[in-house]
DNA sequence: CCCATAATGTCAACTTACTTGACCTATCGA
DNA sequence: TCGATAGGTCAAGTAAGTTGACATTATGGG
């Protein structure tokens, strides 16, 4: 009996994660759509914003995609002047990627939607719940 | 200053959710790949398993995809005898979908991977953290 | 100085997973 | 009987990924 109850709880947890993630991505998705961009562009903007001067290899690492999959959207972002690339000071083969002012604006807009969503949930629940949330997701992400 | 700190925490939270979700899906994805199935098949199997006798419309509702997107993978699952469809007893237009014994086996295998992942995280963190995790994700899922 | 190697870019061909639009059948219910 | 609903299907297109092969440029060791 106890075991059945736990299974039901774990099923609930699976659905919670599924629906929460869907809710979490579709705000930004709608903004991106208006510019003809996709979720990949958002991920690129996000990680360049967070880790300034990241290299192409570095991006490939965090995103866990092939360089061919990265290349097209990254090129578009550079062409749209949302991202700037400079050769590395030590190793000129390595590109240093960073957001332009307009890239930062877009990134902030997208990420802002997600931050507000999380912040509302955190504020409604309180600091203890937030800490628990972080510990558990950290363990799942690990 | 306080505001900057909060921003940093919210950025961390975003990444936590991103990486956790990725970790959460790639166990099942690898199992599915060996059978030539994708994440869509998993979602179908999952929701039929959870809501026995769900209709095609019902599935379309929870999955939030077009019927054309659902049709092909659902048909494959029926052809592979992982899912069975019977006409509804009241309304014969409505299909009642359920898992076959083999469908249940596969669904349990896939979902089991995710349940174990979550259970380890819950057990490591304790009941209070788990409750906080649920409240916050519930709020994000809306 | 030469050459293997690394970082990046790009072409091609393919797959998966969606989308919208149009149209079909079967069944239900007023 | 007839309109509405549940479902199925064809077509054409898009987005986002894959692997494989190959080119360019720059580095750094011998």
In short:
2 copies of one chain form a homodimer. Chain A has helices at residues 2-34, 39-50, 56-63, 67-79, 101-125, 127-141, and strands spanning 83-87, 95-99.
List the helices and strands and how they pair.
The structure is a homodimer of 142-residue chains.
Chain A: H1 2-34, H2 39-50, H3 56-63, H4 67-79, E1 83-87, E2 95-99, H5 101-125, H6 127-141
Antiparallel strand pairs in A: 1-2
The structure holds a DNA duplex (30 and 30 nucleotides).
What would the keywords be for this entry?
two-stranded antiparallel sheet, 142 residues, homodimer, mainly alpha, 7% strand, DNA-binding
Overview of the molecule:
The structure is a homodimer of 142-residue chains. Chain A is mostly helical and 142 residues long. Chain A is built from six helices and two strands. The model of chain A has no long low-confidence stretch (mean pLDDT 95). The interface between A and B is large, with 45 and 45 residues. The first copy, chain A, binds a DNA duplex (30 and 30 nucleotides) through residues 38-40, 55-57, 65-69, 71-73, 75, 87-88, 91-95.
């Amino acid at each position: 009996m106890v075991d059945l109850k736990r299974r039901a709880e774990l099923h609930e947890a699976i659905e919670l994660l599924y629906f929460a993630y869907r809710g979490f991505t579709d705000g930004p998705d709608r903004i991106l759509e208006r510019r003809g961009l996709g979720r990949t562009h958002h991920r690129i903007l996000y990680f360049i914003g967070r880790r300034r001067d990241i290299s192409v290899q570095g991006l490939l690492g965090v995103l866990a995609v092939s360089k061919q999959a990265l290349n097209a959207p990254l090129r578009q972002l550079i062409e749209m002047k949302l991202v700037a690339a400079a050769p590395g000071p030590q190793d000129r083969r390595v590109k240093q990627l960073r957001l332009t002012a307009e890239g930062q604006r877009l990134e902030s807009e997208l990420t802002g939607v997600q931050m507000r969503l999380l912040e509302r949930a955190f504020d409604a629940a309180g600091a203890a719940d937030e800490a628990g949330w972080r510990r558990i997701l950290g363990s799942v992400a690990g």
